[in-house]
Amino acid sequence: MSGNETNREAELERETKELRAALKAARDEFANVQRSMGQAGGGSIPEQRDAADTARMEQTIAERNREVQVKQEALEQANSELRDLTENLDKIVRRRTQALVESEEQLRRSNDELKRLNQMKREFVSIAAHELRTPLTSIVGYLELMAEGRFGTISKKMERPMLSVRRNAERLRRLVEEMLDVSRIEGDHMVLKRERCDLRELAAAVVQELLPLAETKEQRIVSDLEGCPAIDADADKIHQIISNLVSNAIRYGAVGGTIEVSIDRAPAEKYSGSWSRVRVRDDGPGIEEENLDAIFEPFSDINPAKHHTSRGPAAAGLGLYIARGLVELHGGIIAVKSDPGLFTEFAVLIPGIEE
Ligand SMILES: Nc1ncnc2c1ncn2[C@@H]1O[C@H](COP(=O)(O)OP(=O)(O)OP(=O)(O)O)[C@@H](O)[C@H]1O
Ligand SMILES: [Mg+2]
């Protein structure tokens, strides 16, 4: 019911009440007059005057009665309109509720279908990766042996194509390994081989391995390895996480830039409990705020135009997705902050062993 209709109805009710009160007052007055007429007794002149008063009074009452009737009719009309409106409103609400129920059902069905397709995709990725792995391992193995000259000397002319074939076979092998990691993480099949580890040693090993890659871009890697709690972790997986962060810093960092790898105990005032923390910071172009979540999604490619230049065909966009999955399996946290044009910093926190 609208505010206007409510006001109108209230107004009509008030007016009717006033009219009824006026009617009653008129009737009372009429009764009074009649009473006083009775008390006054006979006499021809007063009788004539009283008859004129009575006639006037009756006319007033008749007028008031008509007014009351008009108001009452208006009130009934308003009531009937109100009933129609309420009925219409009920119909609309019923129709809307029905539509809502139907779209909810549709949503549920699409959701089920999406889940089914997602499951199919996972199975497909897993089967494809497993099927690719065996022949690829053989190809990479034979290529190594050929490069070592086990099947005869490689001619000068063959050296370049051979190098390219080896590099691409290695990229394919990495991609297949990443696809396997994704299907293990998504299917909850990733098993951690936990042992007591020191984050400093793991980070130092990664830096050592990736220094030659950084040199190809004239980058410096500076390490700051402070004391931190020991962690109960899968050393290979932690190595893989740090390796992806440092190789990202090399790949996306500026030529001639500096990459900082720092290890410490996460500050107690910010993180309750005991945490070992690794931070990887570069001074490259950075990541815009609106992309900070997207980079953790699988096959994330926030700079498609640069796909075959800075990223290179080797980059599948799975590294951070896998890193996040692995960090979370360890009960840890991964975070990123960036000021485009200035820096990008990834931080990984792994729970420390309580001594
Ligand atoms: N240090 C960084 N600076 C700027 N952008 C980055 C940085 N690290 C990651 N990114 C962005 O995040 C995206 C996802 O990174 P991720 O490691 O998941 O994939 P990738 O490095 O492209 O491929 P892969 O790791 O699978 O080889 C990258 O494509 C890049 O756009
Ligand atoms: Mg990467």
Task: Describe the main β-sheet briefly.
Answer: 5 strands, mixed
Q: Any ligands, ions or cofactors bound here, and which? A: adenosine-5'-triphosphate, magnesium ion
Fourth-level CATH superfamily of the largest domain:
Histidine kinase-like ATPase, C-terminal domain
Rounded to the nearest angstrom, the radius of gyration is 44 Å
Helix content: 55-70%
The end-to-end distance, rounded to whole angstroms, is: 69 Å
SSE sequence, one letter per element: HHHEHEEHEEHHEE
Give the overall pLDDT as a whole number.
89
Strand count:
7
Q: How would you classify the helix and strand content by structural class?
A: alpha+beta
Unreliable residue stretches: 305-310
Structure characterization notes:
- The protein is of the alpha+beta class.
- The chain has three domains: 3-100; 123-186; 195-351, Histidine kinase-like ATPase, C-terminal domain (Heat Shock Protein 90, 2-Layer Sandwich), CATH 3.30.565.10.
- The chain contains seven helices and seven strands, in the order H-H-H-E-H-E-E-H-E-E-H-H-E-E.
- It has helices at 3-40, 44-147, 156-186, 199-215, 235-252, 307-311, 319-329, and strands spanning 195-197, 220-225, 231-233, 258-265, 275-282, 333-339, 343-351.
- It has a five-stranded mixed β-sheet.
- Helix 2 (44-147) runs antiparallel to helix 3, helix 4 (199-215) runs parallel beside helix 5 (235-252) and helix 5 packs antiparallel against helix 7.
- Residues 305-310 have low confidence and may be disordered.
- Bound molecules: adenosine-5'-triphosphate and magnesium ion (MG).
- Residues 178, 244, 248-249, 252, 282, 284, 286-287, 295, 300-303, 311, 315-321, 344 line the site of adenosine-5'-triphosphate.
